[in-house]
Amino acid sequence: MKHVDEYRDRELVKSLAFRLADQVKRPLRFMEVCGTHTMNIFRFGLRSLFPADLEVVSGPGCPVCVTDSADIDVCIAAAENENVVIATFGDLVRVPGSRGSLAESRARGARVEIVYSPIDALELARAHEDKLVVFVGIGFETTVPTVAAAVAQAARLRMDNFCVLSLHKVMPPVFARLLAGNHQLDGLLCPGHVATIVGRRAFEPLALDYGLPCVIGGFEPVDIMQALVQLAELAARREAKVVNAYPRAVAEDGNSSAWRLVTDIFQPVDAQWRGLGTIKSSGLAIRDVYAAFDARRRLDFETETPAPPSTGCRCGDVICGRCRPVDCGHFGGSCTPGHPLGPCMVSSEGSCAAFYRYGEH
Amino acid sequence: MENKKDCVTLDHGSGGLAARELVQEVFLSRLNNSRLAPLEDSAVLPVANGRLAFTTDSYVVDPLFFPGGDIGALAVNGTVNDLAMRGAVPLALSLGLIIEEGLPLEVLERVVDSIAAAAETAGVDVVTGDTKVVHRGAADKLFINTSGIGSIVEGVEISPGQVRPGDGIILSGTMADHGITVLAEREDLGFGGQLRSDTFALNHVVAALVEHFPGGIHALRDPTRGGVATTLCEIAVVSGSSMEIWEERVPLNRPVAVACEILGIDPFFLANEGKCLLFVDPAVEGEILKALHRHPGGKQASLIGRVTDGEAGRVVLHTAVAGQRLMTPLTGDPLPRIC
Predict the structure, then answer these.
(1) Taking CA atoms, which of A9, A54, A245, B83 is between 20 and 30 Å from B113?
(2) In this predicted model, what pLDDT tens digit does every residue of A90-136 receive, in sequence order?
(3) Residue B220, domain member (yes or no)
(4) Domains detected in chain A
(5) Is the ipTM of this complex over 0.95?
(6) Is the Cβ–Cβ distance between B142 and B114 less than 8 Å?
(7) Size of interface A-B (CB pairs under 8 A)
(8) Do the Cβ atoms of A1 and B258 come within 8 Å?
(9) Which helix (H) or strand (E) holds B128?
(10) How far is B317 from chain A (nearest CA, A)?
């Protein structure tokens, strides 16, 4: 595959592994903050190439994993409305809330359709004019522009049966929350997809305010290994700055036209993160001028949400890097991808699913 | 002809005149053979010496037709392959259909045409059958069950229990073609018609190998649902062995690789319907590979790994970028109704 094969070059990966081993002279702990990094590190077997002194933990980079169970309950409340068709990405349907999952609602008769893009949800709305299609907007800076584009298009076409239930989140506030505590991190592998939209410069406060080496990395094996080598070099020098190791996709200021579209349609709002609680201005809500496309204003939700049953699931700790999936008592026993207790086991990008699927147990 | 209905109705499943017409016009005209033709309550087969293999499978694939095949071809090839995986020569198939009322007759005829063609290619007759028609909504278009009986030649002992450390692991061709094709077709993902199901009857190639390499083939398994990864893990557990697999040796069609990449799906978990994994005596693995390469069912066969005497059930994948990780069976089902 053009533009893929060259980043999967076996010899290059091996030489980067040697360079990485060379750079890691003391125990180092890095965090990656993107579900695609999590999966690809496992899928390509890169962990077997890391030096023993390097630990790479997964942060809150999987959008499904950070979705709070109260938000799943809101999705279910929407799905139970008989005029509603829920359109969502596949992973979300199996995430348990406090009273079941969307998959269970579907089994009981709710209309829940899996789509591959928000534009598919628009098509669904066109095909079901007598129904209200509610697209569950989930994802970080990377995903929001396509959802914003769908809302803009729906507005242009004056569609009145399409709206978005925004669970979107942005990254900088959660980084700030994580790093303000005792994080014990020596470096941050920054998410290349998010950086494509927000630009290298957006990560600078992390390096400056928290004294943390940061490298923006791509997602192919060569990209990941190269970013880790650069991160190890920075960590060795204890140099807190942001290096862009993914320049073929990431510009200094990102994709400003995409982000302009996002800010036209969405505004910052406080959001709930699983395991982290409420984080100020870390979510995105639809602006008043587009209220007609905001599911929260189109549908009457019960605002009261019962506390989720205590299962002992440690997804909240896992996504903060406070424990490894295998440290959770449920992992691999009462919690498997077939019967997940928490979102980190549901999402194909969750670190519990990655640990399970690729055999680290 | 002018009175002929253009779709299947509940009448067709009533056992009355319409049912008889359906059997005559749709089934017997296409599947005719001396054992099916009398339409008795059961077909009578001669009893062979030695051992029989007996298998059954149901087919509920959605959509019914997809590039490279359809539910009919799948129903014949899948059951024939299950027999072949024990080294059995297929003797006869049964065919049971559950039809949702309203299915266009033209669709049923196309499926039965395909069943007839696949059975002819595999060299096996459908000798008994049954048709039921259910109310609209009680089934989705068409479900098929086929059972198969095969005979196993004296001395042939092919089963995962025969797998030994040192055995070569051969995959008979590219992986993931069927699973990705059905997914792309069902979701209308538009990969430009480059994907094709690999549905194929493996009995001829297996029979040739069994004849030429007596004792050389220890186990066979077709990696259908759950894909190559799940099948390898199952055999590693059953045989109490460990395995090493080299990713760069696993054949994968380029359009399949691209589609999996775009969709974020691991091709090791996707279904195959015309491929088998062979666990073979290392002394003859080179010759078995050569024999496979000469056969239409094995042109792209590749030695993808080896059985080792490590921890039972442990399958290690050496990735194309020189890393390694464990392979695990598929859990959950991301792609329901693919066969």
Answers:
(1) B83
(2) 888 888 888 889 999 999 999 999 888 899 999 999 999 999 999 99
(3) yes
(4) 5-61+171-244 (3.40.50.11750), 69-170+254-298 (3.40.50.11740), 315-357 (no CATH)
(5) no
(6) no
(7) 68
(8) yes
(9) strand B125-134
(10) 8
